[in-house]
Amino acid sequence: MLRFFKMNGIGNSFIFFDENIQDYSCIRKPERIRAVCDPGTGIGADGVVFVMPPGDIDKNNCKMEIYNSDGSRAEMCGNALRCVAHLYLSQRGDREKVSIETDCGDKTVTLAEKTDAVVLYKAQIGKASFDLVSKGELIPDFSGNFAFDGKDYAVEYVNVGNPHAVLFLKKMPCEQKIKKIGKAIENHNNHPKKINVEFVEITSRNSCNAQIWERGCGITKACGTGACAIVAAGIKNGLFDNKVKVSMPGGSLTIEQDKGKNLYMTGPVQEVVYGHLSGVFVSALRKI
Known about the structure:
It contains five helices and 19 strands. It is of the alpha+beta class. It has a 17-stranded mixed beta sheet that branches. The longest helix is centred in the first third of the chain and has 13 residues. The two termini are 18 Å apart.
């Protein structure tokens, strides 16, 4: 029977399959990942994460591969990164730090606080890039301005391991408008690999509210790399100080940028459930 773990980082939920324990090759098809993530007929989640041995055991403790709920591959996810750290460290009680191999480089995650009520992890994200053209994520010479319903929206482009379009707004749009604008920007022809979208309302130099439209998922309760992209773009434009609380529907993350412009994300991890996929469900997956 195939074992799974379900966890979330401030409402951003994932199903984890630990390939250090079992072989999950039978799940590694987009249509099967979609079935597992389906909240009605599957477990339900924003994505699936495979945890496996690293390519270089002298550098890293484990490796993560993440897939969105639509079955597409994602380069990176901050909330999933903290959950992987929790999965690894909770099985090794004498350790408080783990190095994780990802598609966008090696990431170090440290246990920041552990009580009966909360478990916090601080993750090293790295430096933000504002050049999406060279990565093939943005068409050259695009202005970054969009018009919807007679109103112009200016986008700040950021890559923190995956691409983001950040919109700083005076007032947060309603959910219907977020769906409309988010979907349009994600799938715009100027974004060849599609893109994540963040809607941001600044409340001070150290805080903001954000709504998330994730590439391959739609509206989600939170996005770790999205929070990092928001802060990186805000600091670049003189809107934030170097430590910012980003509040999203699922909860808040603290994002810091050091003098070397390295980004760090601190936030909670919550275990939800672990168990085994039933034989009947696995048999149904194999027929997809």
